[in-house]
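Ticket #4471: structure export looks truncated?
Reporter: QA, pipeline team
Priority: medium

Steps to reproduce: submit the single chain below to the structure queue and open the exported record.
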Amino acid sequence: MPHRLGYARVSTADQNPDLQLDALKAAGCYRLFVDTASGALDERPQLAKVLDQLRTGDTLVVWKLDRLGRSLRHLIDTIADLDQRDIGFRSLQENIDTTTAGGKLIFHIFGALAEFERDIIRQRTLAGLASARARGRKGGRPLSMTPTKLTLARQMYESHEHTLAEIARTLGVSRASIYRHLDQSIHPGAGTPLPRA
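Actual output as written to the record:
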């Protein structure tokens, strides 16, 4: 038999979850889970517990949308995961119920808004990178092998007194960086690759 499980969250130990719990009980929830945590925190053990206990046909009920999701993206992902597991979702204050056609429509609108937000962020990031490149700056992480380190690596390698692992440790870079940069400087474009030792 399908069940309704309620989830409540308060931000601090000083806040009282009774308002949420009373509303969840009135909505027919037979078990209640309460977290005391900031909305931004990833650690919410009771949320993890209720999500684990929900079964096909059950419904997760919250008093308000912001009690469940850390962000719009997290909220959409959580409800989408419930939908894939054939579990309903209901938010009492916003009157959203994904077990109804109207509730599913509202949820899909939220999903479209989240996708729109992601596209805007992606476009701004690409525009920022293009602008930086136009001013001569490159995006991404700074190179681990500076020209000075490359010169030292080459000298140490050509002395035949150090292994590639020792060179990498001495310069504080990965062995992959040593392989890549020394291969390019010793055998540019062709030739025998460095031994993997």
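Status: closed, not a bug. The export was complete when the record was re-opened. Leaving a note from the reviewer for reference: The beta strands are 4-10, 31-36, 59-62, 88-91, 96-97.
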